[in-house]
C-alpha cells in the first residue's frame, strides 16, 4: 500500500466547448502535475464535478487516471454516490481500475443521521480491500459528522484509514488526529486552514489550490514537515488570498478550470448550471495568479 501523506491536488475534469470530457487533456494535466513534484493526486472529487458526470465518464476517468499515473504517485479516486449501493459500485470499480485509495463522502441529499452515515461508510469500505478516506464536508453534504462517529468507524473498519476534514473547525481536526491515532489519519480539506491543520496533527492536504500552484502547496507542506515554519508561513501568507477566494466565492470549480486555462493546461467550461466567472472574478483570479508567479518559480 502506498503511503498517503503530503499535498494532493484534487483535479478538475477538463472539458471541451460542447461540455464533453477532454480525456486527453486530463491525462496531459496529470503528467504535468507529476512533473511538478506533487506527493499524490485525487480525481473524481467535487472539484472534478463528479455529480455532473455520468457513471461511464467517472469509470473512464478512473481508468485514464490510473493508466497515466502508472504507479508513480498515490492516486485517490472519489467514489461518492447518493446511495450505498451506487457508492459500493464506484468504489469497487476504483479498486479494480487500480486506485491506491477511495475518497468517500456521506449521502449529500438525504441528510443522513449518524447511524446511517456509520453504516454507509462501513458497508462501502468492507466491499473493497483498498484504503478508504472518508470525508466530512457539511457545506456540500448538509451534515457535519460528529467526531464520535468518525472515530468509531475508523476504529471498527480496518481499511477506513483517513479522513478529509472540511468542516472548518480546527478543533475537530485536532481531536480526530489525537484521539484517532493508530486508526485514522487526517487530511486537511479546508484551503484556509492548511498550516493550522498540519500543526494539530494532519498528515496531508487535499488541495484545490494545488491545481493552480502545485509546487507551492508541495513546498508549503514540506516546509512544515521540516520544521521550517517561518518559510511555511511566508508561503502560506502569499497563497492565502487565493485560498480565501476559492473558499469564499462558491465558484471553486470555475476558478480552478479558468486558472488551468490561464496556465496553458487543459480546463475548459464547467457543465451547466455552473456558469463562467464574471469579468470582475476573472480579473481577481489573474491578479492572484500574477502575485504567485514569483513564488512558484
Write up this protein.
- This protein has 297 residues and is an alpha/beta fold.
- Helix content is 49%, strand content 12%.
- The chain contains twelve helices and eight strands.
- Helix 2 packs parallel to helix 3 and helix 11 (252-263) packs across helix 12 (279-296).
- It starts with 5 loop residues before the first strand and ends with a helix.
Short précis:
The chain has 297 residues and is of the alpha/beta class.
Distance between the termini: 33 Å
Strand content: 5-15%
Biggest sheet strand line-up: 1-8-7-6-5-4-3-2
User: Got a strand count?
Assistant: 8
The secondary-structure class comes to: alpha/beta
Q: Residue share in helices?
A: 40-55%
Write the layout of secondary structure elements.
Layout: E1 6-9, H1 23-35, E2 41-43, H2 55-69, E3 75-78, H3 84-97, E4 101-105, H4 114-125, E5 132-136, H5 138-141, H6 147-156, E6 160-165, H7 170-179, E7 185-188, H8 194-199, E8 204-207, H9 214-225, H10 229-249, H11 252-263, H12 279-296
Parallel strand pairs: 1-8, 2-3, 3-4, 4-5, 5-6, 6-7, 7-8
